[in-house]
Write a structure and sequence with these properties.
By secondary structure, the protein is α+β, with helices and mostly antiparallel strands. The protein has 4 helices and 22 strands. The chain is 19% helix and 39% strand. The chain binds 2-acetamido-2-deoxy-beta-D-glucopyranose (NAG) (2 copies). GO terms for molecular function: glutaminyl-peptide cyclotransferase activity.
């Protein structure tokens, strides 16, 4: 609705309102003794009341519109750190590419590398692999997500994806998606969100695997390249950025940048404990029931439950760019 039509509507409204000054309840008919002069001045008074009300309404409408626009343009970027609240064992041979929490202290995990790729059901508390589906040696497992009873998995350097039954990990279908490559997958329960190692966040139709939308993700004018493992958390997409200890928080609606989570203390702790062969941070899982966040990495001996908290001190110019942004990669 335009401002003009709103104003007109508001200006007309008082005529039908029994509490308004010019309604029939206080009309001249109910006060027959008024002189013409007093009638005229009352008319003027009514006119001014209507005028001020409509001006007031217009100002409120304009203020709302401009603050809405400001909010849309000046998206506030937040910066968080993490605190470990629990740690669990994780298979140090797992080249983690996809991770999700499926309730009942159970995780599903997809692993990569040729000849070592798999889909697994893992007990959270023990890290024990309860079921494992080995993939063909020609395939490199990547992102994984669960819709209903079906696990969806993408593969590296291919557009080929697989669908598995979550109960027994038996393959129930294959698909071809419209991304350039298969890196990450997540879901809000209705659509698939995907990444292909570029700076694009895709929305895919889970029936046709066509790209419904493709949004380039920017942080302060820089493309955020190498978007990797994805998780849908509280209406946001959280993405590992490959070769960094940073997670990007992205709006699934428009690809807008919401914030960074810095997790370099995890790697630091592992290296200090003597784990020198660990690969990159990768893998985010979300327990929506108990609001638990889990993260791990490729060949990491541990999986962490973490809590995020805002960084209160100002971050120096250029630090985030150095920590969290990497050049685009090509694998041809
Ligand atoms: C939850 O997991 C435990 C241990 O794996 C299993 O015994 C139990 O049946 C599971 N419960 C449900 C509801 O799936
Ligand atoms: C796996 O489970 C589904 C249903 O849960 C069933 O239809 C299918 O036959 C099972 N596959 C195998 C190989 O056991």
């Amino acid at each position: 609705m335009g401002i003009r039509s709103l104003r007109k509507k508001k200006a007309r409204e008082p005529q039908n309102n029994p509490l308004s000054p010019n309604s029939s309840m206080v009309s001249s008919a109910s006060s027959p003794s008024l002189t013409p002069r007093r009638k005229a001045s009352r008319l003027y008074a009514n006119f001014y009341v209507i005028l001020s009300v409509s001006l007031f309404v217009s100002v409120i409408v304009l203020l709302n519109i401009s603050s809405y626009k400001l909010r849309a343009f000046e998206r506030v970027i937040s910066y968080h750190m993490i605190k470990v609240v629990n740690e669990f064992p994780h298979d140090p041979q797992a080249f983690t590419q996809g991770l999700l929490y499926a309730g009942n202290d159970t995780l599903f995990e997809s692993t990569g590398l040729y000849g070592k790729s798999s889909v697994r059901k893992v007990a959270l508390r023990t890290g024990k692999v309860e079921k494992l589906k080995k993939m063909d040696g020609s395939l490199f497992g990547e992102g994984l997500t669960l819709i209903g009873e079906r696990l969806f998995q993408v593969t590296w350097l291919q557009k080929l994806g697989f669908i598995y039954d979550q109960k027994n990990l038996s393959k129930v279908g294959t698909f071809n998606h419209e991304m350039k490559d298969g890196w990450g997958l997540a879901t809000d329960g209705k659509v698939l969100f995907g990444s292909d190692g570029s700076s694009s966040l895709y929305e895919l139709d889970p029936r046709t695997f066509k790209a419904v939308s493709k949004q380039v993700v920017y942080y302060k004018g820089h493309q955020v390249h190498n978007l990797n493992e994805l998780e849908y958390i509280n209406g946001e997409i959280w993405a590992n950025v490959y070769m960094t200890d940073c997670i990007a928080r992205i709006s699934p609606n428009n690809g807008g940048f919401l914030g960074w989570i810095l997790l370099s203390n995890l790697r630091k702790g592992l290296v200090e404990a003597g784990h020198r062969d660990i690969d990159v941070l990768n893998g985010i899982a979300w327990d929506d029931e108990q609001k638990r966040i889990f993260v791990t990495g490729k060949m990491w001996p541990k999986l962490y439950e973490v809590k995020v908290f805002p960084i209160n001190k100002p971050i120096e110019e250029g630090v985030i760019e150095q920590l969290c942004l990497r050049r685009p990669l090509t694998f041809t």
